């Protein structure tokens, strides 16, 4: 299922997941981190944190391929059937994915790089599809496939939210970027 997260069971047959696992040395769908540990010649008794380290390294490779850490915005689109019909939600999601890819905003780097996530519920449950953009925390109503291209152009590219479609705001405080707490540390205390 396209658009499904590569690590989910549903997404394991997707082209995105196949590409990621094919490029991840020592990883197989059936054995996961056990296969990676064996490929490195390690065993759990000798390396008590090995399972955690191998899994962290595997997930870090996937995150790197998905450009996680390069994004400046994250768009969540609610396609839950309490929010909108399945047909309307699916059409909006496919349009959002297509627009972000077409305009090189998805799996990209730079000031307009944008991550996207399809969700089943943002707890509004009416007036959907509902869409929220972070870190701005801008909540949009009625984000149908017909509105998505205009939204991508105005909000994501030009940085001008479309006020007539916005019904709420909850901006997140900006955190100064620094070195990742995960780099150079295998300690779970840095998490």
What would you say about this model in short?
By secondary structure, this protein is of the alpha+beta class. It has helices at residues 15-22, 33-39, 50-65, 86-102, 148-157, and strands at 73-78, 114-119, 131-134, 138-140, 166-169.
Structure description:
- It contains five helices and five strands; from the N terminus they run αααβαβββαβ.
- It is an alpha+beta fold and 191 residues long.
- It folds into two domains: 10-65, no CATH class; 73-169, Glutaredoxin, CATH 3.40.30.
- α2 packs across α3.
- The chain starts with 14 loop residues before the first helix and ends in a 22-residue tail after the last strand.
- Mean pLDDT is 76; it is low at 1-39 and 184-191.
List keywords for this structure.
five-stranded mixed β-sheet; disordered C terminus; single chain; 2 domains; Glutaredoxin; 191 residues; alpha+beta
């Amino acid at each position: 299922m396209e658009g499904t997260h590569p690590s989910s069971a549903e997404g394991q047959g997707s082209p995105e997941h196949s590409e990621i696992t094919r490029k991840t040395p020592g990883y197989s769908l059936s054995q996961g981190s056990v296969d990676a540990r064996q490929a490195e010649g390690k065993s759990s008794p000798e390396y008590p944190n090995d399972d955690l380290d191998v899994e962290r390294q595997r997930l870090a490779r996937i995150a790197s391929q998905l450009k996680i850490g390069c994004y400046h915005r994250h768009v969540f689109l609610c396609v839950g059937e309490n929010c909108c019909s399945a047909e309307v939600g699916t059409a909006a999601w496919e349009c959002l994915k297509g627009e972000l890819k077409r305009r090189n905003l998805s799996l990209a780097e730079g000031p307009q790089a944008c991550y996207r996530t399809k969700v089943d519920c943002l707890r509004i449950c009416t007036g959907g599809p509902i869409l929220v953009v972070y870190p701005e925390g801008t909540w949009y109503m009625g984000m149908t496939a017909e509105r998505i291209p205009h939204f991508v152009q105005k909000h994501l590219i030009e940085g001008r939210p479309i006020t007539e479609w916005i019904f709420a705001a909850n901006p997140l405080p900006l955190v100064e970027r620094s070195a990742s707490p995960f780099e150079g540390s295998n300690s779970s205390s840095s998490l």
